[in-house]
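Records of this kind hold a single protein each, on a pair of labelled lines. With that in mind, the following record should read easily:
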Amino acid sequence: MNTMSLVSFTLILAGVLLNAVAQLLMKAGTQVVGAFAFSAANIVPIGWKLLTQPTILTALGCYGLSVVLWILALSRVPVSIAYPMLSLGYVVNALAAWWWLGESLNPTKIAGISLILIGVGVVSRA
């Protein structure tokens, strides 16, 4: 039976949390910029708005740090155990988006979150 050390679990969880935070910050940043059409004429002006949006820059930093932590985690944990734990990002994002962004959290999403948590628990003990 493989057991995951506290350090390995912490690296994975921190990477997942940073990735989830990055997603939420990206959403917050795009809300500031607003909806935009993807066209050649928009590449420079919208690209500039996105690249100068502090929440999007922070999100990119979170992504970068999450990649570093993920690489450290993969050096310690089999990918067949580590990769399914990325599903926890959906759980964190769904709950945080409900709390922070006012997105819906209906019974179907709660059931899905429960299944994800059960699945991650089973895989992490394999």
Summary: The helical segments are 6-33, 43-51, 54-74, 79-82, 88-101, 107-124. The mean pLDDT is 89. The first helix runs from residue 6 to 33.
